[in-house]
Amino acid sequence: FISNFIGNILFFFYLCGVKDIVDMKKDLIKPDYIFESSWEVCNKVGGIYTVLSTRANTLQNEMKDHIIFIGPDVWRERNSPYFIEDKKLKSDWIKQTAKEGLKVKVGRWDIPGSPIAILVDFLPYFEKKNEIYGWLWENYQVDSLHAYGDYDEASMFSYAAGLVVESYYNFYLSNKDNVIYHGNEWMTGLG
Questions:
Q1: Which residue(s) pair with 179 in the sheet?
Q2: Distance CA 183, CA 191 (A)
Q3: 3-state secondary structure of 84
Q4: pLDDT per residue over 105-162, tens digit each?
Q5: What backbone phi and psi angles, to 5 degrees, belong to 139?
Q6: What is the rounded distance in angstroms from the CA atom of residue 103 to the CA atom of residue 101?
Q7: I need a labelling partner for 125 at 20 to 30 A (CA). Which of 14, 39, 161, 180 fits?
């Protein structure tokens, strides 16, 4: 699907006389893994849930378990109606995350395609909030002093999601793998 879609776009550009873009097709690199994080993975709140869940089936068919969705564990001890936990799936990595201080649940998002989903507990990072914000200011001049509303909650979730991807990458992957991390909406910008 993805290669056909890109091919159709490139053919359109070719017809329009934009040859350089058509020549780019030979340089396209297909990702080995895509990690997508969103506040709405396994957490039906608004419109992005629909966007993610409808494209998940296509990506799962194309990449078979190399598309991994990361969402917040807002359900905590309760069962999410959108998530089917599978303690055997990635169990070796789950043990590693516990050693790293990450609290994750791994399973399947209960949508067409049933992609892998990782829910992360982001609450422990509130203890490090000032340290995280200080580092962001010093390195990127991201101003958190004037933040309000749900900024802290979103920031701690996206920080935790970034740690999840880093841990997974270090455990299973290498620099030979082409990896995309896609944070959806402003709420995942810190990841």
A1: 33
A2: 7
A3: strand
A4: 999 999 999 999 999 999 999 999 999 999 999 998 888 888 877 899 999 999 999 9
A5: -95, -30
A6: 6
A7: 180
- Our CA angle for 101, 155, 151, nearest 5°, is 145
Residue with structure tokens 């791994």? 106
Reference 14, options 6, 5, 26, 23; nearest CA is 23
Backbone φ, ψ for residue 83 (5° rounding) = -135, 135
- In the three-class reduction of DSSP (H, G, I as helix; E, B as strand; rest coil), residue 23 is classed as helix
**Whole-angstrom Cα distance, residue 103 to residue 119?**
8
**How are beta strands 67-72 and 104-109 bridged, if at all?**
unpaired
Q: Looking at the chain, which runs of residues are DSSP E strands?
A: 33-37, 67-72, 83-85, 104-109, 116-120, 179-183
- The three-point CA angle 67-153-40 to 5° equals 35
Q: Which residues, other chains included, contact 114 with Cβ-Cβ below 8 Å and sequence gap of 6+?
A: 60, 84, 108
CA nearest to 10, candidates 23, 29, 1: 23
Q: What are the structure tokens assigned to 26, written together?
A: 């030979």
Give pTM, 2 decimals. Answer: 0.84
